[in-house]
Write a structure and sequence with these properties.
With 393 residues, the protein is an alpha/beta fold. Helix 3 crosses helix 5 and helix 9 crosses helix 11.
Length: 393
């Protein structure tokens, strides 16, 4: 088995997720969950694997900026134009050293994103390659973040989207009353962080909104402010908006499939057509996480969009408990094909979609309440990472 590369793998969590920097990860690792620590297993297999923390409730843009600061070291810069447009701070926390040494054309990165982590890494890759014209116009050249300058497409080797929300989720439409309340709960959780036990256990990374503070590199708590929470909600610069189909469409308009990057997608499904009815309707399988089952039923009945103009049909019913499977397959406006139809070796600039994994939304990363066995989960990642290391440079 010939290995052509051995570049680092960076695993980017989804909404409400966390990385190695948070105490929560020591007890229930995000990557692996109840199946064991997946990054540790993969490191033991000879891969160089990292799992950083980015904003749990932040937009794809803000998370991409945070990921860049960690990869290269330095202060998070959300951009002059972006920060002014949405009314939050331009700068975030400072990382005194890079996630790993040598990141660049000679030491590229393999990006793996779960759920909303998929949108994060896709936007990050586009900014690395193309930069941002809006930020270039709004910022003096000597103050412009290198992320927004572009020209770094050759720093990225591959992108793997794991149960990623490429086209948004109908859950935010089918259960919009419940979701509308839940988003304010998450902003309250963000406000409870800072220099306290909860902040160390489960940090929000929401300093751009002053929900927590940064003073001389030290994280500080801030008083809870309903006004700040409403400001984030109404800004559309947050994870909840980016996960709507309209929000995902707007994010996708800023992203492109890069011709020098390998792309892979892992869609999931844990539902089946409901028995004893001719009407298209999906219901969760018994082994789906109980927390997700009401969400799954809601998605499984929603085939006509009554919220906005985004067209959907019965193809949006199959789901993993949180996201329709069709949304996890690949971005609609980017070239893609089923991996099992591939003849020869994968090519750059094309999404290769794995056969649907029989997992719910968290089962593909280890599982919550209904865990995926380590004997099944760990080989999926190990074999995929080996395949990536065999690809041509």
């Amino acid at each position: 088995m010939q290995m052509n590369t051995n570049y680092p793998f960076v695993l980017v969590h989804g909404m409400l997720g966390y990385g190695k920097d948070e105490v929560m990860n020591k007890y229930v690792p995000y990557w692996g969950m109840l199946s064991g620590n997946l990054p540790q297993y993969l490191n033991d297999q000879g891969f160089e694997v990292y799992d950083p923390s980015v904003g749990k409730y932040s937009s794809a843009w803000d998370r991409a900026c945070e990921l860049y600061a960690q990869l290269v070291g330095g202060t998070v810069d959300y951009g002059v134009a972006h920060s002014k447009k949405y009314g939050h701070n331009r700068f975030g926390r400072t990382y005194n050293k890079p996630l790993f040494e040598g990141f660049g054309p000679d030491k590229k990165v393999n990006l793996v994103g779960h759920s909303f982590g998929g949108a994060t890494i896709r936007l990050f890759a586009t900014l690395m390659a193309r930069g941002s014209e809006a930020e270039k116009e709004a910022t003096p050249e000597d103050e412009l973040s290198d992320l927004f300058k572009g020209g770094k497409e050759d720093w990225i080797f591959s992108i793997t989207a794991v149960a990623s929300v490429h086209e948004g989720t109908t859950l935010l439409y089918s259960a919009r009353n419940a979701m509308d309340k839940l988003d304010m709960v998450t902003y309250l959780m963000a406000s409870l962080g800072g220099d306290n036990f909860f902040g160390r256990l489960y940090e929000s990374h929401m300093e751009q909104w002053d929900m927590i503070g940064i003073n001389n590199g030290r994280i500080e708590s801030r008083p809870i402010s309903v006004a700040k929470m409403k400001k984030v909600k109404e800004s559309h610069d947050n994870v909840w908006y980016d996960l709507t189909m309209q929000g995902a469409k707007e994010v996708n308009e800023t992203i492109e499939c890069l011709p020098n990057v390998y792309y892979f997608s892992w869609p999931c499904c844990k539902t089946s057509q409901k028995f004893f009815t001719d009407k298209p309707q999906h219901t969760p399988r018994f082994t789906m996480c109980p927390v997700f089952q009401p969400f799954s039923r809601s998605i499984g009945k929603y085939s006509v969009n009554d919220v906005d103009d985004y067209p959907i049909d019965e193809h949006w019913l199959a789901n993993d408990g949180v996201v329709p499977t069709i949304s996890e397959t690949a971005p609609f406006n980017e070239p893609h094909m089923d991996l099992h139809d591939l003849k020869g070796e994968p090519k750059k600039g094309m999404w290769y979609v794995y056969d649907v994994f029989p997992c719910d939304h968290l089962g593909i990363i280890g599982g919550f309440l209904m865990p995926t066995s380590a004997s099944k989960l760990q080989p999926w990642y190990r074999n995929h990472f080996r395949m990536i290391n065999q690809l041509k440079k």
